Amino acid sequence: SKSDDGFCSAPSITESDEKTKPIYWKVTNPTLSPSHLQDLPGYTRSVYKRDHALITPESHVYSPLPDWTNTLGAYLITPAMGSHFVMFFAKMKEMSSSGLPPKDIERLVFVVEGAVTLTNTSSSSTKLTVDSYAYLPPNFYHSLDCVESATLVVFERRYEHLGSHTTELIVGSTDKQPLLETPGEVFELRKLLPVSLAYDFNIHIMDFQPGEFLNVKEVHYNQHGLLLLEGQGIYRLGDNWYPVQAGDVIWMAPFVPQWYGALGKNRSRYLLYKDVNRNPL
Ligand SMILES: NC(=O)N[C@@H](O)C(=O)O
Ligand SMILES: [Mn+2]
User: Fold this and answer.
1) Which residue in 74, 107, 139, 260 has the fewest CB atoms around it within 10 Å?
2) pLDDT higher than threshold 80 for residue 242
3) What residues contact 263, with CB distance under 8 A and at least 6 apart?
């Protein structure tokens, strides 16, 4: 900020603040957090339209997740919006555990804060910390157990079979995924799932440096559930331009015109659900 010239009073976004916090800290401690807005009656940045929605933290409504223990869930995207998937935050408290999804439903969990232990029938248990994830195939017995606390973002959908392909348990972390080619685009791309035909969706992790933006003003049949993990910028959805920050969630229906421009002093990173590998007919 230009505080030395005295004409900009806003505190500058200091790099050091960002650097001392754990990764993805802003998702659960957003600048415009509910506590900062509580004395502003009725104000929200959330929007819900036919082909997109912006759901911001002051709008989250938590309730106990059926079948989970000691866990509050805030559903952000569900088929009631027109999606074929659900996206929810799971706030796991001490001594909490997950429930199983319904029959034939696949699940992906991504750890935004804290840690959980994944146990399944065959392999020994695996600890998932921040930036780690697990993909659970449909009808795959598993349990996510939390001793202290954890915040997960969870995607679930009905698995769409293709021939005899089958999916398998995937456990990984973003930082171990290779950067993929992005011809014609400047953002850095990682994918959390294999690109093989067995998988009917993928999770993209996309990084933009400040000032970088999507080259293509996309319109496509795929739908998206987006969580901004880091940074800030402008999201265009249809004819609307939204200032967004870490912690914001966006629903993009098929064919909604979409574009992102990253702003500020730190990179933007978002996590994006995208259906793939299946004929839209
Ligand atoms: N909105 C957005 O980022 N979309 C692309 O990344 C894509 O792969 O669809
Ligand atoms: Mn897209």
Assistant:
1) 139
2) yes
3) 210, 211, 231, 232, 233, 234
Residues in the chain: 281
Tell me the best of 189, 207, 218, 275 to mutate to test the pocket of ligand 1, counting ligand atoms within 8 Å of each CB and taking the most. 218
* Residues, Cβ < 5 Å to ion ligand 2: 218
Q: 22-49 pLDDT, tens per residue?
A: 999 999 998 888 788 877 889 999 999 9
pLDDT tens digit sequence for 259-269: 999 999 999 99
Nearest to 271 by CA among 168, 174, 141: 174
Q: Which atom of ligand 1 is nearest to the CA of 274?
A: 9
Residue 258 Cβ contacting ligand 1 at under 6 Å? yes
73 within 8 A of 62, measured Cβ to Cβ: yes
End-to-end CA distance of the chain: 52
pLDDT tens for residues 175-219? 999 999 999 999 999 999 999 999 999 999 999 999 999 999 999
Q: Report the complex ipTM.
A: 0.98
Task: Copy the structure tokens of residue 81.
Answer: 């919006």
Q: What is the atom index within ligand 1 of the atom nearest the CA of 252?
A: 1
